[in-house]
Amino acid sequence: MNSVKPLVSIICCAFNHGQYIRQCLEGFLIQKTDFAFEVLVHDDASSDDTAAIISDYVAKYPHIFKPVYQKQNQFSLGIKIWPGYQFPRVMGRYVAICEGDDYWTDQYKLKEQVDFLEKNGNFTACFTNAEILNETDNSRRIYLNGLAEGKIPSETAILRGGALYPTASVVFRYSPRIPDLFKMIPELNGDNLLIMILAMQGDIYYFNRITCTYRVWEGGVYSSVMNDIRTTLGRKRNTIKGLKKLKKISERPFRGYFKQRISQESYFILQHSGVLKNLGYLFKLTVKDSLRMLIYHKMLSRNNF
């Protein structure tokens, strides 16, 4: 079994997930498939028992779990984990993602999504709904409400970006172009850039059923970042830089979608900054981007946005 090439590579990144990582790894083991898969688990120098727990699973299932244990936290050094350590290890035709504090709940999740992609070559990815578990008050809610099952328009994928889908639910067709673009456009965060790349390469399908749980807690990736408006504005400015790079290398109709997305991000910055800072940021934009942003602002105002 060790010599069987995996059809799917599961990317799992962990950092101080000691209280959650077992549930995550068990979610992989419950999968019922007729193909081999590997789990590329990466521990970013956790200070708790995350690495020790991962080691236990590696010892029991060495043909499934392929670990990397960092001695120094790479994220704090500005190194992106997916393109830096995970994509280079991918052996599968398809890639699935599940961070160490999230987990899969449907034992047929992987098989059904892979079967769909195998039968539909024009689709580059598919994702499902998820449940959000808030660890603070132990409340649960549905991740996506009102999104109809079916093909996702490319425009929707570009404009909504990473907010469109639960990261733990996606399975996509892997290509060397993906890590190349991640290295070329470091300004965008992983789930945001990924869905836009996939939308540019083909169709994306949404299954309206819950297959995984997305966990929200104080140590989560975005919890502290989104609570700091200055950090958020900095991320938005970086997002605009990345979107401009994507717009430059894209063709119609994607170029127009990226223009709209740039306008959205610019409006957010203006809306959450002081007046003088707003004016300063306007001067930094190109004339076209400034006009586009003002038009977008006017449209939103008309709709009481």
Q: Helix proportion of residues, in percent?
A: 40-55%
Q: State the low-pLDDT regions, or none.
A: 300-305
What is the CA-based Rg, rounded? 20 Å
> Which second-level CATH architecture of the largest domain applies?
Alpha-Beta Complex
Count the E strands: 10
Overview of this structure, please?
- This protein is α/β, with parallel strands linked by helices and 305 residues long.
- The protein has two domains: 8-216, Spore Coat Polysaccharide Biosynthesis Protein SpsA, Chain A, CATH 3.90.550; 228-302, no CATH class.
- 44% of the residues lie in helices and 20% in strands.
- The chain has twelve helices and ten strands.
- It has helices at 21-29, 50-60, 81-86, 109-119, 154-160, 177-184, 190-201, 223-226, 229-249, 254-271, 275-284, 287-302, and strands spanning 8-14, 37-43, 65-69, 94-97, 103-104, 123-134, 139-142, 150-152, 171-173, 203-216.
- Strands 1, 2, 3, 4, 5, 6, 7, 8, 9 and 10 form a ten-stranded mixed sheet that branches.
- Strand 2 (37-43), helix 2 (50-60) and strand 3 form a beta-alpha-beta unit.
- Helix 10 crosses helix 12 (287-302).
- The radius of gyration is 20 Å and the shape is globular.
Give a brief description.
The protein is α/β, with parallel strands linked by helices and 305 residues long. 44% of the residues lie in helices and 20% in strands.
Structural descriptors:
single chain; 305 residues; alpha/beta; 2 domains; 10 strands; 44% helix; 20% strand; disordered C terminus
